[in-house]
Amino acid sequence: MLSSTPRTTIKKGKIKAVYDTTELHAIIDDSLIAHIAILEDTGPVVIPMLAWRVEETVYIHGAKNSRLLRRLKGGQQTCLTFTLFDGWVLARSAFHHSAHYRSAVVFGTFTTIDDNQEKDRLLNHFIEQIAPKRTETIRLSNDKELNATELLAIPLTEVSVKIGKHGVNDDAADLDIPVWAGVIPYRTVIGPLIATSDLSETIAEPDYSAAYNERWHQAE
Hints:
Layout: E1 17-18, H1 21-31, E2 33-40, E3 43-50, E4 52-54, E5 57-63, H2 67-73, E6 78-90, E7 98-108, E8 111-112, H3 116-130, H4 143-147, E9 149-155, E10 159-164, E11 182-185
Antiparallel strand pairs: 1-10, 2-3, 2-6, 4-5, 5-9, 6-7, 6-11, 7-10, 8-9
């Protein structure tokens, strides 16, 4: 169960607050993109970054000269947001139109992973999340590449989760308005694979569907 802090307590739309770590993990694992806030001399900046989770820690990586990573490596307090859009809610009144979504907000500071062996393990873990068993066949990172890569970690210790999935919330006075009401669902479909133009015809297409469940493209 997630615990509340002054920063994570949801004050608006409390019915949408969720404290289940399983829901938190699913949001992070499905989104893969974290919007990360830093404070520059000219003001706040929010930058999208690839992010992945291993147990109760989120990791990001990039080049050593990244301004975002330099700021975060210095111990600056930050906030990460993960958002999944699930659909439009169409009500009988303009005021009650809304959306279905899942979101998570993570507060804290990043620490740096300096050991190349640990960097390699965590970066390969990310590859395995998006393409199972791929690290068994590709060339893995060498020391030069690992030395050029910054890897940062933030624990999931101060987090809020909000999920909107409550459907249409029309006023009783509007229920007789003769207009359709309901939800337009949004779903992410993965695949099919698109091979690079220089790929040998002798190489068989891999199957990564295990990482994506029902979202994997199914040819009709």
